[in-house]
Specification:
By secondary structure, the protein is α+β, with helices and mostly antiparallel strands. The protein has three domains: 120 residues, Orthogonal Bundle (Helix Hairpins), CATH 1.10.287; 149 residues, DNA methylase specificity domains (Adenine-n6-DNA-methyltransferase TaqI, Chain A, domain 2); 121 residues, Adenine-n6-DNA-methyltransferase TaqI, Chain A, domain 2 (Alpha-Beta Complex). Helix content is 36%, strand content 22%. It is built from twelve helices and 20 strands. It has a six-stranded mixed sheet with strand order 14-19-17-18-15-16. Strands 2-9-5-7 form a four-stranded antiparallel sheet. It has a three-stranded mixed sheet with strand order 4-3-8. The radius of gyration is 23 Å and the shape is globular.
Protein backbone atom coordinates (compact mmCIF):
# COMPACT_ATOMS: atom_id res chain seq x y z
CA UNK A 1 0.00 0.00 0.00
CA UNK A 2 2.85 2.37 0.85
CA UNK A 3 4.28 1.87 -2.66
CA UNK A 4 0.92 2.85 -4.22
CA UNK A 5 0.72 5.96 -2.04
CA UNK A 6 4.23 6.94 -3.15
CA UNK A 7 3.14 6.63 -6.79
CA UNK A 8 0.26 9.00 -6.13
CA UNK A 9 2.53 11.52 -4.40
CA UNK A 10 4.88 11.36 -7.38
CA UNK A 11 2.00 11.99 -9.80
CA UNK A 12 0.90 15.01 -7.77
CA UNK A 13 4.43 16.44 -7.98
CA UNK A 14 4.56 15.83 -11.74
CA UNK A 15 1.04 16.82 -12.77
CA UNK A 16 -0.37 19.28 -10.25
CA UNK A 17 2.26 20.47 -7.79
CA UNK A 18 0.60 23.89 -7.71
CA UNK A 19 -2.81 22.39 -6.90
CA UNK A 20 -5.89 21.37 -8.86
CA UNK A 21 -8.78 23.43 -10.14
CA UNK A 22 -12.03 23.44 -8.15
CA UNK A 23 -15.35 24.17 -9.87
CA UNK A 24 -19.01 24.43 -8.90
CA UNK A 25 -21.30 21.66 -10.09
CA UNK A 26 -23.45 24.24 -11.86
CA UNK A 27 -20.47 25.04 -14.09
CA UNK A 28 -19.77 21.41 -14.86
CA UNK A 29 -23.16 19.95 -15.76
CA UNK A 30 -26.88 19.77 -15.13
CA UNK A 31 -29.25 18.28 -12.58
CA UNK A 32 -32.28 16.26 -13.65
CA UNK A 33 -35.23 14.73 -11.84
CA UNK A 34 -36.53 11.21 -11.45
CA UNK A 35 -39.77 9.65 -12.66
CA UNK A 36 -42.88 11.84 -12.76
CA UNK A 37 -46.59 11.11 -13.05
CA UNK A 38 -46.36 7.48 -11.93
CA UNK A 39 -49.03 5.73 -9.85
CA UNK A 40 -48.62 2.79 -7.48
CA UNK A 41 -49.98 0.45 -10.15
CA UNK A 42 -47.17 1.42 -12.53
CA UNK A 43 -44.70 -0.36 -10.24
CA UNK A 44 -46.69 -3.61 -10.18
CA UNK A 45 -46.28 -4.82 -13.76
CA UNK A 46 -43.38 -2.85 -15.12
CA UNK A 47 -41.56 -3.22 -18.43
CA UNK A 48 -38.54 -0.95 -17.84
CA UNK A 49 -35.84 -1.07 -15.19
CA UNK A 50 -35.50 1.77 -12.70
CA UNK A 51 -33.07 2.59 -9.90
CA UNK A 52 -34.57 2.75 -6.42
CA UNK A 53 -33.85 5.09 -3.51
CA UNK A 54 -32.24 2.22 -1.58
CA UNK A 55 -30.04 1.21 -4.52
CA UNK A 56 -28.51 4.69 -4.47
CA UNK A 57 -28.33 5.00 -0.69
CA UNK A 58 -26.62 1.63 -0.19
CA UNK A 59 -24.14 1.53 -3.10
CA UNK A 60 -21.38 3.88 -4.21
CA UNK A 61 -21.77 2.33 -7.69
CA UNK A 62 -25.27 1.65 -9.01
CA UNK A 63 -26.26 -2.01 -8.91
CA UNK A 64 -27.72 -2.44 -12.40
CA UNK A 65 -28.39 -6.13 -11.86
CA UNK A 66 -31.23 -5.51 -9.41
CA UNK A 67 -34.39 -6.26 -11.38
CA UNK A 68 -36.97 -3.65 -10.29
CA UNK A 69 -39.33 -2.40 -12.97
CA UNK A 70 -41.79 0.37 -13.76
CA UNK A 71 -44.42 0.55 -16.49
CA UNK A 72 -43.40 2.89 -19.33
CA UNK A 73 -45.54 3.88 -22.29
CA UNK A 74 -44.12 4.20 -25.81
CA UNK A 75 -42.46 7.61 -26.38
CA UNK A 76 -43.08 8.61 -22.76
CA UNK A 77 -40.91 11.59 -21.85
CA UNK A 78 -38.83 10.66 -18.80
CA UNK A 79 -35.17 11.28 -17.98
CA UNK A 80 -32.92 8.31 -18.69
CA UNK A 81 -29.76 7.57 -16.73
CA UNK A 82 -26.50 7.53 -18.68
CA UNK A 83 -23.04 6.11 -18.05
CA UNK A 84 -21.12 8.41 -15.67
CA UNK A 85 -24.20 10.07 -14.16
CA UNK A 86 -24.07 10.71 -10.42
CA UNK A 87 -27.38 9.88 -8.70
CA UNK A 88 -28.50 11.31 -5.36
CA UNK A 89 -31.22 10.62 -2.81
CA UNK A 90 -33.36 13.72 -2.38
CA UNK A 91 -34.24 13.52 1.32
CA UNK A 92 -33.59 11.86 4.66
CA UNK A 93 -34.32 12.27 8.36
CA UNK A 94 -31.05 14.16 9.01
CA UNK A 95 -29.08 16.60 6.81
CA UNK A 96 -25.99 14.38 7.11
CA UNK A 97 -27.79 11.54 5.31
CA UNK A 98 -29.32 13.64 2.53
CA UNK A 99 -27.90 13.48 -0.96
CA UNK A 100 -26.26 10.06 -0.65
CA UNK A 101 -24.65 9.34 -4.01
CA UNK A 102 -24.20 6.45 -6.41
CA UNK A 103 -22.57 6.50 -9.84
CA UNK A 104 -23.47 4.52 -12.95
CA UNK A 105 -20.06 2.97 -13.64
CA UNK A 106 -21.24 0.41 -16.23
CA UNK A 107 -22.27 1.04 -19.81
CA UNK A 108 -25.74 -0.35 -20.46
CA UNK A 109 -27.82 -0.94 -23.57
CA UNK A 110 -31.31 -0.88 -22.05
CA UNK A 111 -33.14 2.29 -20.89
CA UNK A 112 -32.68 2.96 -17.19
CA UNK A 113 -34.85 5.32 -15.14
CA UNK A 114 -34.59 7.00 -11.75
CA UNK A 115 -36.83 6.90 -8.68
CA UNK A 116 -39.01 9.98 -8.17
CA UNK A 117 -37.50 10.66 -4.72
CA UNK A 118 -34.03 11.01 -6.27
CA UNK A 119 -32.24 13.21 -8.77
CA UNK A 120 -29.26 12.92 -11.08
CA UNK A 121 -26.27 15.01 -12.18
CA UNK A 122 -24.71 14.76 -15.64
CA UNK A 123 -21.34 16.24 -16.58
CA UNK A 124 -21.18 18.32 -19.76
CA UNK A 125 -17.71 16.90 -20.44
CA UNK A 126 -17.87 13.14 -19.92
CA UNK A 127 -14.06 12.93 -19.87
CA UNK A 128 -13.69 15.30 -16.94
CA UNK A 129 -14.04 12.78 -14.13
CA UNK A 130 -13.78 9.01 -14.32
CA UNK A 131 -17.05 7.42 -13.10
CA UNK A 132 -14.96 5.15 -10.85
CA UNK A 133 -13.38 8.27 -9.34
CA UNK A 134 -16.74 10.05 -8.95
CA UNK A 135 -18.13 7.19 -6.88
CA UNK A 136 -15.48 7.90 -4.22
CA UNK A 137 -15.38 11.68 -4.55
CA UNK A 138 -19.07 12.27 -3.87
CA UNK A 139 -18.95 10.04 -0.78
CA UNK A 140 -15.89 11.83 0.59
CA UNK A 141 -16.45 13.67 3.88
CA UNK A 142 -15.57 17.10 2.47
CA UNK A 143 -18.14 16.84 -0.32
CA UNK A 144 -20.66 15.21 2.02
CA UNK A 145 -20.43 18.21 4.35
CA UNK A 146 -21.20 20.54 1.45
CA UNK A 147 -24.18 18.40 0.46
CA UNK A 148 -25.54 18.43 4.03
CA UNK A 149 -25.56 22.24 3.97
CA UNK A 150 -27.88 22.21 0.95
CA UNK A 151 -30.60 20.39 2.92
CA UNK A 152 -33.32 21.96 5.06
CA UNK A 153 -36.42 20.70 6.85
CA UNK A 154 -37.91 19.65 10.16
CA UNK A 155 -38.50 15.91 10.57
CA UNK A 156 -37.56 15.32 6.92
CA UNK A 157 -34.74 17.20 5.23
CA UNK A 158 -34.79 17.92 1.49
CA UNK A 159 -32.04 19.03 -0.87
CA UNK A 160 -32.22 22.52 -2.39
CA UNK A 161 -31.16 22.12 -6.03
CA UNK A 162 -30.15 25.79 -6.20
CA UNK A 163 -27.74 25.43 -3.28
CA UNK A 164 -26.64 22.01 -4.55
CA UNK A 165 -25.39 23.54 -7.81
CA UNK A 166 -22.96 25.67 -5.78
CA UNK A 167 -21.07 22.65 -4.41
CA UNK A 168 -17.38 22.81 -5.39
CA UNK A 169 -15.38 19.73 -6.34
CA UNK A 170 -11.74 19.22 -7.37
CA UNK A 171 -10.82 18.26 -10.94
CA UNK A 172 -7.53 16.33 -10.71
CA UNK A 173 -5.70 15.02 -13.83
CA UNK A 174 -7.02 11.70 -15.17
CA UNK A 175 -3.81 9.71 -14.47
CA UNK A 176 -4.02 10.82 -10.83
CA UNK A 177 -7.70 9.82 -10.69
CA UNK A 178 -6.82 6.36 -12.03
CA UNK A 179 -4.11 5.85 -9.41
CA UNK A 180 -6.40 6.92 -6.56
CA UNK A 181 -9.14 4.59 -7.78
CA UNK A 182 -6.73 1.62 -7.73
CA UNK A 183 -5.86 2.26 -4.07
CA UNK A 184 -9.44 2.79 -2.91
CA UNK A 185 -10.67 -0.20 -4.91
CA UNK A 186 -8.24 -2.37 -2.93
CA UNK A 187 -9.82 -1.25 0.33
CA UNK A 188 -13.38 -1.73 -0.88
CA UNK A 189 -12.57 -5.23 -2.18
CA UNK A 190 -11.14 -6.23 1.21
CA UNK A 191 -14.17 -4.75 2.91
CA UNK A 192 -16.48 -6.62 0.54
CA UNK A 193 -14.81 -9.92 1.50
CA UNK A 194 -15.44 -9.25 5.19
CA UNK A 195 -19.00 -8.19 4.46
CA UNK A 196 -19.61 -11.42 2.56
CA UNK A 197 -18.31 -13.46 5.49
CA UNK A 198 -20.41 -11.47 7.93
CA UNK A 199 -23.43 -11.90 5.67
CA UNK A 200 -22.91 -15.67 5.79
CA UNK A 201 -23.00 -15.48 9.58
CA UNK A 202 -26.16 -13.40 9.44
CA UNK A 203 -27.76 -16.07 7.27
CA UNK A 204 -26.75 -18.65 9.86
CA UNK A 205 -28.33 -16.56 12.63
CA UNK A 206 -31.47 -16.10 10.53
CA UNK A 207 -31.66 -19.85 9.90
CA UNK A 208 -31.55 -20.72 13.61
CA UNK A 209 -33.82 -17.80 14.46
CA UNK A 210 -36.46 -18.85 11.95
CA UNK A 211 -36.19 -22.44 13.12
CA UNK A 212 -36.56 -21.42 16.79
CA UNK A 213 -39.55 -19.21 15.98
CA UNK A 214 -41.46 -21.81 13.95
CA UNK A 215 -43.95 -23.98 15.87
CA UNK A 216 -46.59 -26.62 15.32
CA UNK A 217 -49.56 -24.62 14.03
CA UNK A 218 -52.02 -26.71 16.07
CA UNK A 219 -50.19 -26.12 19.35
CA UNK A 220 -49.23 -22.52 18.59
CA UNK A 221 -51.73 -20.94 16.17
CA UNK A 222 -50.99 -17.79 14.21
CA UNK A 223 -52.10 -14.41 15.48
CA UNK A 224 -51.64 -10.78 14.43
CA UNK A 225 -48.44 -8.93 15.31
CA UNK A 226 -50.81 -6.31 16.70
CA UNK A 227 -51.53 -8.80 19.53
CA UNK A 228 -47.85 -8.67 20.51
CA UNK A 229 -47.20 -4.94 20.21
CA UNK A 230 -49.14 -1.73 20.28
CA UNK A 231 -47.53 0.45 17.59
CA UNK A 232 -47.36 4.23 17.42
CA UNK A 233 -45.21 6.68 15.51
CA UNK A 234 -42.58 8.57 17.46
CA UNK A 235 -42.98 12.17 18.54
CA UNK A 236 -41.64 15.60 17.72
CA UNK A 237 -41.52 17.89 14.70
CA UNK A 238 -37.76 18.25 15.11
CA UNK A 239 -35.00 15.82 16.01
CA UNK A 240 -33.69 16.78 19.49
CA UNK A 241 -29.93 16.43 19.73
CA UNK A 242 -29.14 18.09 23.05
CA UNK A 243 -30.81 18.77 26.36
CA UNK A 244 -30.68 15.57 28.37
CA UNK A 245 -29.35 12.11 29.04
CA UNK A 246 -31.96 10.02 27.23
CA UNK A 247 -30.82 8.71 23.83
CA UNK A 248 -32.90 9.76 20.83
CA UNK A 249 -33.70 7.04 18.28
CA UNK A 250 -34.55 7.86 14.68
CA UNK A 251 -35.11 5.30 11.96
CA UNK A 252 -31.75 3.56 12.42
CA UNK A 253 -30.29 4.06 15.85
CA UNK A 254 -29.29 6.96 18.07
CA UNK A 255 -29.31 10.45 16.53
CA UNK A 256 -28.98 12.63 19.65
CA UNK A 257 -30.08 13.12 23.26
CA UNK A 258 -33.14 14.59 24.96
CA UNK A 259 -34.46 15.45 28.44
CA UNK A 260 -37.65 13.42 27.89
CA UNK A 261 -38.35 9.79 26.99
CA UNK A 262 -41.35 8.08 25.40
CA UNK A 263 -40.27 4.42 25.37
CA UNK A 264 -38.21 2.00 27.48
CA UNK A 265 -36.30 -1.23 26.73
CA UNK A 266 -38.14 -2.02 23.52
CA UNK A 267 -37.58 -2.25 19.75
CA UNK A 268 -37.67 0.78 17.45
CA UNK A 269 -38.73 0.22 13.84
CA UNK A 270 -37.60 2.56 11.06
CA UNK A 271 -40.74 4.29 9.84
CA UNK A 272 -39.83 6.07 6.61
CA UNK A 273 -36.92 6.50 4.21
CA UNK A 274 -33.74 4.50 3.70
CA UNK A 275 -34.04 2.66 7.02
CA UNK A 276 -37.76 1.91 6.88
CA UNK A 277 -38.40 -1.56 8.30
CA UNK A 278 -35.07 -1.87 10.11
CA UNK A 279 -35.47 -3.05 13.72
CA UNK A 280 -33.19 -1.67 16.46
CA UNK A 281 -33.26 -2.31 20.19
CA UNK A 282 -33.90 0.81 22.26
CA UNK A 283 -31.86 0.33 25.43
CA UNK A 284 -33.27 1.72 28.69
CA UNK A 285 -35.40 4.85 28.68
CA UNK A 286 -35.21 6.53 25.29
CA UNK A 287 -36.98 9.01 23.02
CA UNK A 288 -38.27 7.96 19.58
CA UNK A 289 -38.75 10.59 16.87
CA UNK A 290 -41.43 10.57 14.19
CA UNK A 291 -38.98 8.73 11.93
CA UNK A 292 -39.29 5.66 14.16
CA UNK A 293 -42.14 3.45 15.33
CA UNK A 294 -42.56 2.93 19.09
CA UNK A 295 -43.26 -0.71 20.01
CA UNK A 296 -45.34 -1.03 23.20
CA UNK A 297 -45.06 -4.63 24.42
CA UNK A 298 -48.34 -6.24 25.51
CA UNK A 299 -48.82 -8.49 28.55
CA UNK A 300 -47.61 -12.08 28.36
CA UNK A 301 -44.73 -11.33 25.95
CA UNK A 302 -41.03 -11.57 26.80
CA UNK A 303 -39.25 -8.43 25.60
CA UNK A 304 -36.27 -10.11 23.94
CA UNK A 305 -38.44 -12.79 22.36
CA UNK A 306 -40.60 -10.01 20.92
CA UNK A 307 -37.51 -8.29 19.53
CA UNK A 308 -36.32 -11.39 17.67
CA UNK A 309 -39.87 -12.05 16.50
CA UNK A 310 -39.87 -8.60 14.88
CA UNK A 311 -36.46 -9.25 13.31
CA UNK A 312 -37.87 -12.44 11.74
CA UNK A 313 -40.57 -10.52 9.89
CA UNK A 314 -39.66 -9.20 6.46
CA UNK A 315 -40.35 -5.58 7.42
CA UNK A 316 -37.66 -4.09 5.16
CA UNK A 317 -39.17 -5.78 2.12
CA UNK A 318 -42.66 -4.73 3.22
CA UNK A 319 -41.41 -1.13 3.40
CA UNK A 320 -39.88 -1.37 -0.08
CA UNK A 321 -43.23 -2.24 -1.63
CA UNK A 322 -43.88 1.48 -2.22
CA UNK A 323 -41.80 3.87 -4.36
CA UNK A 324 -40.48 5.53 -1.20
CA UNK A 325 -39.76 3.10 1.68
CA UNK A 326 -42.50 3.37 4.33
CA UNK A 327 -43.94 1.26 7.17
CA UNK A 328 -47.56 1.82 8.21
CA UNK A 329 -49.56 0.71 11.27
CA UNK A 330 -51.81 -1.38 9.07
CA UNK A 331 -48.91 -3.32 7.56
CA UNK A 332 -47.36 -3.96 10.97
CA UNK A 333 -50.51 -5.02 12.79
CA UNK A 334 -51.59 -7.53 10.14
CA UNK A 335 -48.31 -9.50 9.99
CA UNK A 336 -48.96 -13.10 11.09
CA UNK A 337 -46.80 -14.51 13.93
CA UNK A 338 -46.71 -17.43 16.38
CA UNK A 339 -46.39 -16.76 20.13
CA UNK A 340 -45.71 -19.73 22.47
CA UNK A 341 -45.88 -19.95 26.28
CA UNK A 342 -43.95 -17.23 28.16
CA UNK A 343 -41.36 -19.71 29.53
CA UNK A 344 -40.54 -20.92 26.02
CA UNK A 345 -40.33 -17.29 24.91
CA UNK A 346 -37.67 -16.57 27.55
CA UNK A 347 -35.56 -19.57 26.54
CA UNK A 348 -35.70 -18.61 22.86
CA UNK A 349 -34.89 -14.98 23.66
CA UNK A 350 -31.72 -15.94 25.57
CA UNK A 351 -30.59 -18.37 22.85
CA UNK A 352 -31.05 -15.91 20.00
CA UNK A 353 -29.35 -13.12 21.96
CA UNK A 354 -26.12 -15.15 21.83
CA UNK A 355 -26.32 -15.57 18.05
CA UNK A 356 -27.26 -11.91 17.63
CA UNK A 357 -24.17 -10.76 19.55
CA UNK A 358 -21.83 -12.76 17.30
CA UNK A 359 -23.27 -11.03 14.23
CA UNK A 360 -23.93 -7.49 15.45
CA UNK A 361 -21.67 -6.72 18.43
CA UNK A 362 -19.10 -4.29 16.97
CA UNK A 363 -16.72 -4.91 19.87
CA UNK A 364 -15.99 -8.54 18.98
CA UNK A 365 -15.14 -10.78 16.02
CA UNK A 366 -16.03 -9.96 12.42
CA UNK A 367 -18.10 -6.83 13.19
CA UNK A 368 -15.09 -5.33 15.00
CA UNK A 369 -12.74 -6.26 12.14
CA UNK A 370 -15.12 -4.80 9.56
CA UNK A 371 -15.42 -1.58 11.56
CA UNK A 372 -11.63 -1.25 11.70
CA UNK A 373 -11.35 -1.89 7.95
CA UNK A 374 -13.98 0.79 7.19
CA UNK A 375 -12.16 3.30 9.38
CA UNK A 376 -8.93 2.55 7.52
CA UNK A 377 -10.68 2.98 4.15
CA UNK A 378 -12.25 6.27 5.25
CA UNK A 379 -8.86 7.53 6.45
CA UNK A 380 -7.20 6.85 3.09
CA UNK A 381 -10.19 8.15 1.12
CA UNK A 382 -9.98 11.42 3.07
CA UNK A 383 -6.20 11.59 2.57
CA UNK A 384 -6.22 10.76 -1.15
CA UNK A 385 -9.14 13.04 -2.01
CA UNK A 386 -7.70 16.11 -0.28
CA UNK A 387 -6.27 18.46 -2.89
CA UNK A 388 -4.70 21.88 -2.73
CA UNK A 389 -6.82 24.33 -4.70
CA UNK A 390 -4.95 25.91 -7.57
CA UNK A 391 -4.82 29.69 -7.57
CA UNK A 392 -5.87 30.90 -11.00
CA UNK A 393 -3.92 33.84 -12.35
CA UNK A 394 -5.91 36.98 -13.11
CA UNK A 395 -5.75 38.21 -16.67
Amino acid sequence: MKKKINIIEKLIDELCSEGVEFKELGELGNLYGGLTGKSKDDFSNGNAKFITYMNIFSNIAVDVDVAIFVKMETNEKQNKIQYGDVLFTGSSETPDECGMSSVLTKKIDEPLYLNSFCFGFRFNDHNLLLPEFSKYLFRDEKVRKQIAKTASGVTRFNISKKRFAKIKIPIPPLPLQEAIVKVLDTFTELEAELEAELEARKKQYEYYRDKALTFDEVKVPFSDLGDVYGFQYGMGNTIPKTGGNFPVYGSNGIVGTHHEYNSEDSPVIGHIGAYAGIVNWGTGKHFVTYNGVICNLKNGIDARFGYHLLKKQNLIEIAKSSSHPFVSYGKLKSVQVQVPDINIQKEIGKLLDKFDALVNDISIGLPAELKARRQQYEYYREKLLTFKEKTLSKK
